[in-house]
Amino acid sequence: MNLARQAKIPTEWSQLDWREELKNNVTSVDELKEHVRLTPTEEEDLRKVVDVHPMNIPRYYLSLIDHDNPDDPIRKLSVPGPEELIVAGSMGETTGDPYGDDKHDKGNGILHKYSYTALVVSTEYCSMYCRHCFRKRMVGLPNDQTVQNFKEAAKYIAEHPEITNVVMSGGDPFLLPTSALREMLEALKDIPHLNYVRIGSRAPVVYPIRFFDEELIELLAEFNERKTIYVPTHFNHPDEITPTSTEAVQRLRSAGIAVNNQAVFLRGVNDDEDTLVNLMNDLVRIGVNPYYLYQCMPVARVRHHFQVPLKKGIDIVDRARRRMDGYAKRFKFIIGHDIGKLEICGRLGDKAIFKQIHARSDHPEEASRLLVRKLTETGGWLDDLPEVEL
Ligand code: SF4
């Protein structure tokens, strides 16, 4: 846990107005230089990268960087690097949409890939632009248009009784004003076939200040009595678990909300045994359930430097699991693929075993099937690995 670094922070993050503090996000190289030491070469590279992929880092998250560590994970997750100029990676070609989102887009921001789940893109704004993000195509929409789109999405959900749960995603829904969130939740609360709502957010990790807004917590507690809310969040490294982010989680839990974690397995960030063990143990300690560990997607400008080959990755994850108790090792190591979600079960010699745990609604027969592939030294995605008999 990042106690030492938090102790050095002069600002009382909990006292800040979340809307005002967002305006202090670091978005230019000149601003960044006030917080982070950059060599002349780094500065030159950075200027090229931010022209292609904008930078947006909350001051809180920047304050977690250990400036004496050249491999600091917080820095890698937030500060652009020259590797982002590489479109196709050393591990093969990359694609813009490996999860196949676009094919399942029903308009008005709704993605309906699995029959029982509807994903609604509630906003395209995030408090930070994570360098490993697989949705690097961000366009801001005004709030009233966002709410209108959401109401149309809610109508679609009401007309599809097979949908049992909704994922409000983005972007980050918690970056919307509380009043907009209220309107959205109101639109869902009376749909009888809806069992629960997920609000996916990395804000507890990168912008915990949002959860010091009492009005938000009251809204969530109120709605949670009508439909159960879960918050899937996204801690990738134990250094992200600070007293401030822990407090944000506690506030969500005080509203009766279960918080589940969906980490991404990232080279140079958490691809070692100790880091994974510490991450999962710390999550359980603060009341967050480890749920998924995603294999990094083959996204252009991400894959080349962040994806870990599966052959190596399966071994790291397995060694780490051996040291975790039952609650810490509840997570599934997952590929979020175009065909559906695949659990990476493990390896038998040079073969990897996958189990498909969700299938597209037009291919229900694919759910629960096993897939076997031959591992290669560099293959980091299902499509990279040749089919093989068990
Ligand atoms: S908060 Fe999530 S959606 Fe937003 S940039 Fe980060 S990883 Fe991507």
Please render the helix and strand layout as text.
Blueprint: H1 3-7, H2 18-22, H3 29-32, H4 40-52, H5 59-62, H6 73-78, E1 110-114, E2 117-121, H7 143-158, E3 165-169, H8 178-188, E4 196-199, H9 203-206, H10 214-224, E5 228-233, H11 243-254, E6 258-265, H12 273-285, E7 288-295, H13 303-306, H14 310-322, E8 332-337, E9 340-348, E10 351-356, E11 370-374
Parallel strand pairs: 2-3, 3-4, 4-5, 5-6, 6-7, 7-8
Antiparallel strand pairs: 1-2, 8-9, 9-10, 10-11
Helix pairs in contact: 7-8, 8-10, 12-14
Bound molecules: iron/sulfur cluster.
Which keywords apply here?
390 residues, binds iron/sulfur cluster, globular, TIM Barrel, alpha/beta, 14 helices
Précis, in short:
The chain is an alpha/beta fold and 390 residues long.
CATH hierarchy class name of the largest domain: Alpha Beta
Write the CATH fold name of the largest domain: TIM Barrel
- Number of helical segments with 4 or more residues: 14
Helix fraction, binned, reads 25-40%
Shape label: globular
Overview of this protein structure:
The chain is of the alpha/beta class and 390 residues long. It has 2 domains: 3-85, no CATH class; 101-384, Aldolase class I (TIM Barrel). Helices cover 31% and strands 17% of the residues. The protein has 14 helices and 11 strands. The chain has helices at 3-7, 18-22, 29-32, 40-52, 59-62, 73-78, 143-158, 178-188, 203-206, 214-224, 243-254, 273-285, 303-306, 310-322; strands at residues 110-114, 117-121, 165-169, 196-199, 228-233, 258-265, 288-295, 332-337, 340-348, 351-356, 370-374. Strands 1-2-3-4-5-6-7-8-9-10-11 form an 11-stranded mixed sheet. Helix 7 runs parallel beside helix 8 (178-188) and helix 8 packs parallel to helix 10. It is globular. Iron/sulfur cluster binds next to loops.
